[in-house]
């Protein structure tokens, strides 16, 4: 197992009252994503717990792309990964944010 942490700044706070959203399943080739509203001094923090070690640069690229498309602030994202491909990770992240924002993204 490997734990990766990413932090982004310059995002926008999101409106709404949803405290958290969980999407996905922990299973082979899949992952779960938890999105939580937290006071992080304007940061968006991401923690990835993955069974596939040695893919930090790929995770960095996927998370950079995600933050470019969804510049969030004061949001913590926790990911439990069991070998999902980058495409599946991106889809799950989009699904989680859309659910968290109540259909707005």
From TrEMBL:
Modified residues (O-(phosphoribosyl dephospho-coenzyme A)serine): 28
Keywords: Cytoplasm, Phosphoprotein
One GO term describing the cellular component: cytoplasm
Highest taxon above the source species: Bacteria
Chief localisation class: cytoplasm
Protein modification: Covalently binds the prosthetic group of malonate decarboxylase.
InterPro entries with a match to the protein in the record: Mal_deCO2ase/Cit_lyase_ACP (IPR023439), Malonate_deCO2ase_dsu (IPR009662)
Coiled coil: none
Protein localization: Cytoplasm
NCBIfam families: malonate_delta
HAMAP family: Malonate_deCO2ase_dsu
Protein name: Malonate decarboxylase acyl carrier protein
Species this protein is from: Paramagnetospirillum magnetotacticum MS-1
């Amino acid at each position: 197992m490997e734990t990766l942490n990413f932090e982004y700044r310059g995002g926008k706070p999101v409106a709404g009252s949803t405290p958290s959203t969980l999407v996905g399943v922990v299973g082979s080739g899949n992952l779960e994503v938890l999105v939580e509203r937290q006071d992080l001094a304007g940061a968006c923090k991401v923690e990835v717990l993955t069974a596939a070690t040695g893919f930090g640069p790929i995770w960095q690229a996927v998370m950079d792309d995600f933050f470019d498309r969804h510049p969030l602030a004061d949001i913590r994202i926790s990911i439990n990964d069991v070998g999902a491909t980058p495409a599946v990770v991106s889809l799950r992240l989009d699904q989680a944010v859309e659910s968290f924002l109540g259909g707005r993204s």
